[in-house]
Amino acid sequence: MSQQPSQTSNPSWFTVAGCSLALSLATGLITAAVKVGKQDSDNETLRGQNEELRTQQDQLSAIIKDWRKAYDEQGAQFQTTKVQLQALENDRCTPLLEQVNQMKNYVNQPYGYGYNAEKVPDLQRVLDGYQQTLRACYNARM
């Protein structure tokens, strides 16, 4: 029996290159598919977060709108109160103003109110005192 050398078939370089290229393409496609799947999953997660943030933004916008409305109402109440306070302060000075006007009449027409010419200087001093008190009343508000 004679032994023949065993023949092993060696693949050609083209076969090795083709298999290598096919394996690289398959690996690339699998990697790309995995990345696309991951991106889809990430996109879905981001969409959910975006929707949640929009909901929170809408809620915060409603709260801010309510705050602005309350602030405007408070400002209106403040203005109303301020006007009422000024009216009360004016009311406080009104009796003095009436007294000043009455004293002016006494000084300008003393005979019509039963006073003689000798009383006019005394009436003028009283009028000056009322006028000073009235000025002080109005200045106290400022």
Strand-helix topology:
Layout: H1 13-108, H2 120-140
Helix pairs in contact: 1-2
Explained architecture:
With 142 residues, the chain is mostly helical. It has one domain. Helices cover 82% and strands 0% of the residues. It has helices at 13-108, 120-140. Helix 1 (13-108) runs antiparallel to helix 2. It is rod-shaped and about 155 Å long.
List the defining traits of the structure above.
rod-shaped, mainly alpha, 142 residues
Largest sheet: none
Overall tally of domains: 1
Helix share of residues? over 70%
Overall number of strands: 0
Poorly predicted residue ranges = none
Mean pLDDT: 86
Brief summary of the model shown:
This protein has about 140 residues and is mostly helical. It has 2 helices and no strands. The longest helix has about 100 residues, at about 15-110.
